[in-house]
Amino acid sequence: MVDAKEFINKAIIEIKEDVGENKVISACSGGVDSMTATYLVHKAVGDKLIAVFINDGLRREGEPEFVVRTLKSLGINTRSIDAKEEFFKTLKGKTDAEEKRKAFRDKFYKTFGQVAKEENVKFIVQGTIKADVIETVEGIKSQHNVLEQIGINPQTYGYLILEPLRELFKPGVRTVARELGLPKEISERMPFPGPALSLRVLGEVTPRKVAIVRKATQIVEEETLNLGTFQNFAVLHNDKATGIKNGKRVYGNIITIRVVVSEDAVTATAKEIDYKTLFKIANRITKELSTVVRCLYDVTDKPPATIEFE
Amino acid sequence: MVDAKEFINKAIIEIKEDVGENKVISACSGGVDSMTATYLVHKAVGDKLIAVFINDGLRREGEPEFVVRTLKSLGINTRSIDAKEEFFKTLKGKTDAEEKRKAFRDKFYKTFGQVAKEENVKFIVQGTIKADVIETVEGIKSQHNVLEQIGINPQTYGYLILEPLRELFKPGVRTVARELGLPKEISERMPFPGPALSLRVLGEVTPRKVAIVRKATQIVEEETLNLGTFQNFAVLHNDKATGIKNGKRVYGNIITIRVVVSEDAVTATAKEIDYKTLFKIANRITKELSTVVRCLYDVTDKPPATIEFE
Predict the structure, then answer these.
(1) pLDDT, position B148
(2) Tell me, what DSSP letter sits at residue A159?
(3) What's the ipTM?
(4) Which candidate in B300, B301, B307 is best for mutational testing of the A interface (most A CBs within 10 A)?
(5) pLDDT tens digits, A209-251
């Protein structure tokens, strides 16, 4: 168990030392990891930190507004960058999972790099945690915020990286967030991947497909809010399937519902959701989204699956 | 409720009258519909009937051998045609569901047409039932054995079609099958679509993908044998997803498990299978099929989904 007070005090001292009189930018996606890392750095360096929220067009319903509002309410200097068109442009035509992750990561770093130059900063804060580091080193996935671990020189992008949470697993991060007094919506927030909804649209990522999975995600989250599970989300398949809408045969979309129990994301089990809830989710999704004809429930643990589909 | 004795007697008289001194070929796929139709015609015209099993490479594990053996044990003249390569050739490169159905149907009729010419027959028996007719007229699917109803001239293919079960729904067919004394493996047999496993391989149909879905289907059928459900099967997606096998990240196959309760296939509900069984199926599939990393369970009713995916 992490001693949160001790961790925070030590981290603040280290961050102050590392940063000196330089300016810092924090990559703030809204998850517990990046918000905790950001607030920790804010505590250490105050106004030398600028939190940046990049609106990549891939966030959940209401998330951009929520993140920016929360950052400001914490007294953090905040900049919001609208990069929706650029992200969709870079993702256009890409269908391979790893290629999509790489495209997202490159655009992410380039966008941040620009802001970092404009703001004349030297450091970028990222919410990397221990599970990300382990999995990247083991080759499970290419995480967008662990460049140092995999030997890519962050200087290429024009800045150095601060990762104050890299020794913590998820439960430790939440303990620190609570100790820091972050709002509950942050400290208890479900994990959400860096490349966001782009990982939950199989095949090419388009604004239209993201809008579908965003709405399906909202429904899944609403209906599973009280389960206490680790991650609850929706995935839009590239495959289509036959269905019947208004008495006519249609060739429609498939949504998978994924709800997992996990401690640290390294392993996970599919949650035994009661069928009443599952059927309610499937009903809502196929009714509220006119193109969706089928809902599937993922019953695979990690391993052999991963939590996300890409 | 169908009076099976009366139905059989009436059908035999009508078939005799229609067929006269002509020869008849029966398209025998192994399902309760085609087997019952075939045996009914055999009762009516005896040796003037030749049952033809076309091995299209798309049948379930052990099915070709089972069908031919059963037909022979019923005393029916039987011919088995190996058309595996031709069917895969015609399906090659086709990814659209309706295009695949059409390709299957055309190849099916051409193959049968050839045999019909060789055998100098005038009639072909098909196991069309009422649900097929209704759905084709309503545009839900293009069934391969209801040409007459949708206005296609069967003469194009060189023969006339006999559909003795076209007034029956599925339970009526089973009652007739029992009354005819067909083996239980036939009278209680789960429905299986004409285009067989080609509908359960999303995207292009290849021998390799059919082998995967065939094995997954066998596992699903074995583990759900005693549920008393209407249809239990597996679908292989064209989409891929990430997973972990032997500690390494892989980009693997997705299988959907589909188990439905239905009376007549016109409507259906997803079965509330207990999770123990679902997890056992998922475990077996991901262990016994090295390329599969994920198993999903279809929780959608018909409507808005259909029973099959294509």
Answers:
(1) 46
(2) S
(3) 0.88
(4) B300
(5) 999 999 999 999 999 999 999 999 999 999 999 999 999 999 9
Residues 6 or more apart in contact with residue A90 via CB below 8 angstroms: A103, A104, A106, A107
Which residues, 6+ apart, have CB-to-CB distance to A281 below 8 Å? A219, A220, A223, A224, A257, A295
The shortest C-alpha distance from A100 to chain B (Å) reads: 13
Q: Determine the distance in angstroms separating the CA of B8 from the nearest CA of chain A, rounded to an integer.
A: 34
Return the residue of A nearest to B253 by Cα: A305
Tell me what pLDDT residue A143 has.
46
Read off the pLDDT of residues B224-238 as tens digits, 9 standing for 90 and up. Answer: 999 999 999 999 999
Q: Using CB atoms, pick whichever of A237, A270, A293 lies closest to residue B239.
A: A237
The pLDDT of residue B152 is 44
Distance from CA of A155 to the nearest CA of B (A): 28
Q: What is the pLDDT of residues B42-100, one digit of tens each?
A: 999 999 999 999 999 999 999 999 999 999 999 999 999 999 999 999 999 999 998 99
CB < 8 Å to A205, chain B: none
Q: Say yes or no for a CB contact (<8 Å) between A310 and B139.
A: no
| CA B138 to the chain's CA centroid | 20
Q: How many CB pairs under 8 A join A and B?
A: 143
Whether residue B235 contacts residue B309, with contact meaning beta carbons closer than 8 Å, is answered with yes
Which of left, alpha, beta for A120 (phi over 0: left; psi -120 to 50: alpha)? Answer: left
Pairing label, strands A123-125, A24-27: parallel
